[in-house]
Amino acid sequence: MGCCSGRCTLIFLCTLQLLAALERQIFDFLGFQWAPILGNFLHIIVVILGLFGTIQYRPRYIVVYSVWTALWVTWNVFIICFYLEVGGLSKETDLMTFNISMHRSWWREHGPGCIRRVVRPSPPGVLDDFSYVSVTGCIIDFQYLEVIHSAIQILLSLIGFVYACYVISIFMEEEDSCKY
């Protein structure tokens, strides 16, 4: 196989997916969003499995990867619908934290250009740790940053799915030709 083969392209795509998932995992950890953390963790494992299957010529592992990419696209479409509040979903719910905490997207308060101001509702001296956060001046709203992250994941997954199917067919042809 040549250097610019489907196999090398799939290795490159898996590496890009891995980097994008790790970046997303970091920001989901910062925002204590447990549902995306769990999804990203599974995604990282399956992408590593697909990468291993591609490098080691194991088509079954690549099949698992391609099935997972279809599920991953579905999850990211849900994330987009969640943050754009499509179909009765609301980004103000605690759905992404499994209703464990009141944390939200890290990008809500730390987006590009955002100025964060903490406003204490109670007088000083009261041992109340609750505070309101006022965010102004954001260049792009946090929900659009989350949508961009999900759209990148969808794009990489769709391209990865196509190349995974191609590499599986190439591996199967090579396997069939070796039997005779």
Automatic annotation (TrEMBL):
Any one biological process term the GO annotation gives: regulation of sodium ion transport
Pfam family, one: NKAIN
Membrane-spanning parts: 34-55, 62-86, 151-172
Protein family according to the UniProt entry: Belongs to the NKAIN family.
Keyword DNA damage: no
Membrane topology listed for this record: Multi-pass membrane protein
Lineage: Eukaryota, Metazoa, Chordata, Craniata, Vertebrata
Protein name: Sodium/potassium-transporting ATPase subunit beta-1-interacting protein
Keywords for the protein's UniProt record, in alphabetical order: Cell membrane, Membrane, Signal, Transmembrane, Transmembrane helix
Signal peptide bounds: 1-21
Top-level taxon of the source organism: Eukaryota
InterPro entries found in the cross-reference section: Na/K-Atpase_Interacting
GO cellular component terms listed in the entry, alphabetical order: plasma membrane
Compartments in which it is found: Cell membrane
